[in-house]
Structure formats: C-alpha cells, structure tokens
Amino acid sequence: xxxxxxxxxxxxxxxxxxxxFWCNPISGHATLYWYQQILGQxxxxxxxxxxxxxxxxxxxxxxRFSAERLKGVDSTLKIQPAKLEDxxxxxxxxxxxTGNTEAxxxxxxxxxxx
Amino acid sequence: xxxxxQMEGPVTxxxxxxxxxxxxxxxxGYPSLFWYVQYPGEGLQLxxxxxxxxxxxxxKGFEATYRKETTSFHLEKGSVQVSDSAVYxxxxxxxxxxNKLTFGTGTQLKVEL
Lengths: 114, 113
What we know:
Distance between the termini of chain B: 41 Å
Radius of gyration of chain A: 13 Å
Oligomer: heterodimer
C-alpha cells in the first residue's frame, strides 16, 4: 500500500515570495491533515479536511496561508507571502475517517525562508 | 486546553540499556494517547497507542501504560538497540474531537554501541 506522498521534499524561498506544497493521501482515506513542525517543537495542526470540506482550520494563519482539497483527494497548502517564521517542516497526514483511527504521515516538506 | 509535556533530549544510552521517556498530559476531555517515532529522513510513524485508562500499548519491545491518576504515558523499553535511535513524540487526541493530534516537543534518543 502506497503511503502519503508529499512534494517537494525541500524548498528554499525568499521572504515575501509565495510557495505551494502538494499532498496525495493514502487511497480511500477521507480525512486529511496539514501540520506545521517548527524546529525543536512538536507538530501543530494547521487544517483538517473531511473529504473536501474543512473540519478545523482554527490554527491556520488565514491572512497568508490557504489550503484546498478539491475532489476530496489531493490537497495543496499555499503560503503567500512567506515570512521568516514560516520556516518549518510541513507534514501531511491522512486517516480513514475522522474519529479514533490511526493517522499516517508523509515525509514532509522542509521549507526554509531566507 | 490540551497539552503534552515530555522530557527534553537528547537522551544518550548504551546498547541494551533500559529506556524511559517521560510524558505527561493535560486534557479538556477524555484523551487517547499515542507515541509516534520519527527515524532519520522518514515521516512520523505510530509506535503504540492506548485509548482508555490502565490500557497498555506495546510494539517492537516498547511499552507505555495510560495512567489517568498521574496523567502520564511514559515510554519504556527494556533493552534498546542502535536501530532505536530516533525522535519520539508523545501525543493525545480527544475522543470525539475529530482525531486532531496534540504533540509534545519530541525527545531525541541516541543509542551507542
């Protein structure tokens, strides 16, 4: 079974530029999550989708971050414009459904903003 | 709110030593508790979990017991190997809370020969 796929693995951009990350969850998984992991900290949930609807985006900085999950499969997370403090690893995860089920994580995208 | 506190690393042990990584939590509802592991260059993987008080999760020789009275979920292994070197994250999710995970800051384990 293929795991959660993310791209790119690494990205370096200058502040005020825009960037987008892509995630393909495990086939059949209805729930998709984006987490931000700043160096030295644990992952923090940015947004959670159930199919193509948003379940929780309370910690998403909506002035600069946006995410979509068209057709309830792939998802894209965008930052525009980027700030230095956005440097982090962005993790995508998926689970069969919302509830007490295991979340499977991708390898993440490491973003460096200079 | 919900939070997880785990011991700071790095923890450096010799092979075959006993491992304990402490984890305590605060939660507004009834949590399920997890340990995730991140090997170098890889994504987070679920190591073990427990969904109710006094449950013991176990996998690959690792164990953790859900202690409601002390709000703890300490990770233990009787004899560590070099291949156990990784970063370990304690996490919780609230039952009925949409499976959202709240993570601790992670503890790096280094096992030497």
